[in-house]
Each structure stands twice: as C-alpha cells, then as structure tokens.
Write a structure and sequence with these properties.
Elements lengths: L2 H4 L23 E3 L9 E11 L6 E11 L3 E3 L1 H9 L8 H16 L3 E8 L10 E5 L4 H11 L12
Antiparallel strand pairs: 1-4, 2-3, 3-5, 5-6
Length: 162
C-alpha cells in the first residue's frame, strides 16, 4: 500500500489489537477516498453490536447498518469495528447509540451522506429500530436525506422475532 493510502492508519495490520470496553470515538481512523469525484455508497453491516441499557444495565444486542457516500475521507473498517465494540459497556438508549454513531462519523469524515440504522433484538417483548440520516447542507444530499427519512418506513419489514 502506498504511503498516500495508509497515511494515519495505525490499527489496520496491527497484530497487537487491543479491545476497549468503554465508548471511545478516538478509535476511529480515516483514509483518503481515491474516487472523490464519484458518488457511491459504502455499507457496513455489524450484526454483533452490544451496548447496555442505562437504567437496568442489561445488555442490548443489535445489527447496525451504516451506509455513507464519502467525500474526501473514508472510515477504515478495522477502526470502525473497534469503535463499535467500545460500546460494549456503554450505557445509552438505542436511539442515543445510533445518533452518537452518526455524529461521530459525520465529524470524522464530513461525508456527503450518511445513515445509521439499528435493529435491536426484542427485550421485554418490544424491539426498537432507530434510524438516523444526514445529508451535507447546501448539497443535493441534503434533499436526499429528507426524502429517505420521510419515506423510511413506508414498507416496514415483517418482525419475525429476529
């Protein structure tokens, strides 16, 4: 890999990976988008997300779907995995977890568009699936974000107790 592509990456290829059990957005790393002139989606599926209920401290489990249209910087996947793992002992409501992840990724990358969808397993007989998105202000992606949010759940998926 050329220096231009791996500039600033410390986790990828590191054999001494350390897992952090407390929320830490400083784990996130970026690299330069090699195709900033083209709009395209990058999607991450994270089926092993875990956090804690801030009241009962019981574990909450979810599959997270993170999609974004990069601008100049992209999130490195190993750093994203370690960052998401850092929620393991973090106490926050489902909605807060999803919004915090979106906020951290927006601050990190300044993407054209981003969405985070958490599909949490039922606890107490109810599942919660928070969805948040963002379109960069003053661009066509701002309208895309509104359109996707306003039509987000027109055709809800069947719930099969996951």
């Amino acid at each position: 890999m050329s220096d231009r592509k791996n500039e600033g990456l410390t986790l990828l290829g590191n054999k001494g990976t350390t897992y952090t059990f407390d929320y830490d957005p400083n784990l996130l790393e970026t690299f330069q988008n090699q195709h900033p002139e083209r709009d395209y989606f990058v999607k991450f599926n994270f089926p092993e997300f875990t956090s804690l209920c801030p009241i009962t401290h019981q574990p909450d489990f979810a599959t997270l779907h993170i999609s974004y249209v990069p601008a100049e910087r992209m999130v490195e996947s190993k750093s994203l995995k370690l960052y998401l793992f850092s929620f393991r002992n973090h106490g926050d409501f489902h909605e807060d977890c999803v919004n915090n992840i979106a906020n951290d990724l927006i601050q990190l990358m300044d993407p054209k568009y981003l969405e985070v969808w958490g599909k949490f397993l039922p606890r107490g007989g109810i599942s919660i699936d928070p969805y948040v998105n963002y379109g960069k202000k003053g661009t066509r992606w701002e309208q895309v974000a509104f359109d996707r949010l306003s039509k987000h759940d027109l055709y809800p998926e069947p719930i099969d107790n996951r």
